[in-house]
From TrEMBL:
Entry keyword Manganese: no
Any one Pfam family match given in the protein's UniProt record, by short name: Bac_luciferase
InterPro entries linked to this entry: Luciferase-like_dom (IPR011251), Luciferase-like_sf (IPR036661), SsuD_RutA_monooxygenase (IPR050172)
GO MF annotation terms: monooxygenase activity
Domain Luciferase-like: 22-319
Organism of this sequence: Streptomyces violascens
Top-level division of the source organism's lineage: Bacteria
UniProt-recorded name of the protein: Alkanesulfonate monooxygenase
Keywords attached to this entry: Flavoprotein, FMN, Monooxygenase, Oxidoreductase
Length: 365
């Protein structure tokens, strides 16, 4: 099995030191975000996830800036079908590919909140949004296969002789990640994507949900948090610090949001946290921050070595990549890529050396 890939959530607001803090969503510190991105490039982060939400700056212009400031780092553009026409969206992605020599991937999301979707004039129900996403992706794939002029007749999109002069840099297409926990999300990932991304669970449970996707040739990734220190005791002390100041008001706000969400992934993460008493789901997997931050806040907590070993358990369960975040985002990113990643690579080297394939290829003398 190939090496695990590690992505990170872009921090346009890097001021959060606690899991219960809200983002400074009314400002954009572009200089600070550029510094964060440059460091991610230097640290060897595979890709930065550029999220799309009403409480964040739009990722499209910001990705263009970041591409000019980096040399190796890739960018995962999270976007929802329905905001842009598929022709225009393909044009945007193709342009990014030329600006960066192909350092662009897509995270197609159907949306988790009908209330937020309505902000943008979108009133489709959950499964209908996935139907639209499938049409959207069919059109994108057709463009990248060179099927132009393209005429398309669907329930959600109609195109007549659509053409784009600028194709994807070098031919081909970007890598496509599909997020969600529902069956329709899995089917969309297998049909139109490369990776099915979901919120975390224990390795044992993840293995069960990942099996159908892996059996059909897809890949599986996890979105979660991470917090490691030299020792477990230090990690637990830091966890107590980032969880301090939690208020019932913030908890109620999140609970009210979840009540209106129609995302299976969101509801599933809160169910898991409830079942764990908003505490430990395993020795390393902590659910206490979910009540204040939502599904992505399931967090790996422990010593660098403990977390590295647990990541190998996920790998054994079929997981191939992770999108991590932390508190504060930049500090934890630096900590992970300088202290945890080397341990993961050592474990992977030992795994490869002890595999039957490695033994079969060794000279017998």
């Amino acid at each position: 099995m190939s090496q695990l890939r590690f992505h990170w959530g872009s921090a346009l607001d890097d001021g959060q030191k606690k899991s219960t803090q809200q983002y400074a969503s009314d400002v954009l510190d572009l200089d600070g975000a550029i510094e964060f991105t440059r460091e991610a490039d230097e640290l060897g982060v595979d890709s930065l996830l550029m999220a799309q939400s009403f409480d964040l700056p739009d990722p499209l212009p910001i990705i263009g800036v970041f591409m000019r400031e980096t040399r190796r780092l890739k960018f995962i553009l999270a976007y929802r079908p329905g905001l842009l026409s598929p022709t225009l969206f393909t044009q945007v992605v193709n342009t990014f590919s030329w600006m960066s020599e192909g350092r662009i991937s897509l995270n197609v999301i159907a949306g988790i909140s009908p209330a937020e979707q309505a902000y943008y004039g979108d009133f489709l129900a959950h499964d209908a949004r996935y139907e639209r996403a499938n049409e959207f992706l069919e059109i994108l794939h057709a463009f990248w296969r060179g099927e132009t002029p393209l005429t398309y007749e669907g329930s959600h999109y109609r195109l007549k002789d659509a053409q784009l002069s600028l194709g994807y840099h070098g031919g081909g297409r970007p890598e496509i990640l599909i997020s969600g926990a529902s069956g329709v999300a899995q089917r969309t990932a297998v049909r139109h994507g490369d990776v099915w991304f979901r919120y975390a669970d224990t390795p044992e449970e993840i293995a069960k949900s990942a099996a159908p996707v892996l059996a059909q040739g897809g890949r599986v990734g996890l979105r979660m948090q991470v917090l490691t220190r030299d020792t477990r005791e230090e990690a637990l002390a830091e966890l107590a610090e980032v969880m301090s100041g939690a208020t019932e008001e913030r908890k109620k706000w999140v609970a009210d949001f979840v009540a209106t969400a129609d995302s299976q992934a969101v509801h599933n993460s809160f169910r898991l946290a409830d079942e764990a008493g908003h505490g430990w789901m395993s020795q390393v997997l902590y659910s206490g921050a979910v009540a204040y931050r939502g599904g992505p806040a399931l967090c790996l907590v422990g010593s660098h070595a403990e977390v590295a070993a647990y990541l190998m358990e996920y790998k054994a369960a079929g997981i191939g990549e992770f999108i991590f975040s932390g508190w504060p985002a930049r500090d934890e990113m630096r900590n992970f890529f300088t202290r945890v990643l080397p341990l993961v690579r050592e474990l992977e080297e030992k795994e490869a050396a002890s595999s039957p394939a490695a033994g079969a290829s060794m000279p017998t003398g």
